[in-house]
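seq as requested:
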Amino acid sequence: MITVMKKKSFLLGVLLSGSLATMAQDINFSQFYEMPLLRNPALSGTFRGDLRVSGAFRSQWNSATSAYKTQALGVESKFGVSANTDDYMSFGMQLTNDVAGDSKMGKTQLLPVLTYHKSMSSEKDAYLSLGFIGGVVQQRFDPSGLKFDDQYVNGAYSPANPTRQTFSNTNLIYWDAGVGLAYSSEAGSDLKYYVGASYYHFNQPKVAFNPVSDVRLNSKFSMNAGLSVPTSEYDNLMVFGDLFMQGGHNQAQGGFLFRHDLRQLGDEGETVSLSAGAFYRLNDAVAPVIKLDYYQWSVGASYDATISKLKNANGGQGGFEITLSYKNFLNIRNSSADKMRCPVSF
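struct tokens:
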């Protein structure tokens, strides 16, 4: 048992001193539809209003020695291009931070987003959107929480025992960029939908902690879709899905929310509504979701139930997640803000 622990600890140190630990997949949320900038920069600004602020917190694998914690904050604002067109632009900012494991391996991203939305019809809401995302990323880890082979003396480990393992660099900063395309429209008077595709990390930045290692972050291609259709005067069904492909690995996720309007006021679409549903990550987890919309505010909660082989280690416990968002019109109104609204209303 001790021998196995020693080997695992030493291997972890080797991986960190090189670069494999920096090749982890991008962060993801079970309520992924609440963080559109992480799905596709072209989805920025596709909501009813002039301003949207979205936040998410996720605590994953709490049964492990060190839980994985992820936070994200997104801000989006939009404005009309001119009085003679329904085209509009949106500007956003995506901030993320996550910390994982005994080494406190973490990553912080600050990513501005700029998107142009081209109106494709004067008769209905139909937009072709092109978005760009890019900014600075910092990765780091703390080796003080790691255990190494030479810290075991006579089969016993002590953090006071010195180690010959050294790290030339525990902090890394690089630039990252992505692009996305999306089309949003309606079919008939009720069904609304969007489809999109994005290409993240197209610059393939160097992500090795070891400066002599030329390890690059694999580009990621994604496809996104969503639709909303009323099932009665006060009820609505919303469906979302994503497919990601990166470095020879694929991830698919999707699910639904069933929303019931408890109260609706005026022409601004302000509602008090309650939604419930479930989402599935292929071969990974199932997450039931509940959400409350209270006029301009929305709060959602979900919990992952692990269905992969990892459930043998974590007892099926996945991650708890909570989201909070606010959207509203500003004092200065424009026709684009009035006309454009998210095809899948939240």
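The radius of gyration is 23 Å.
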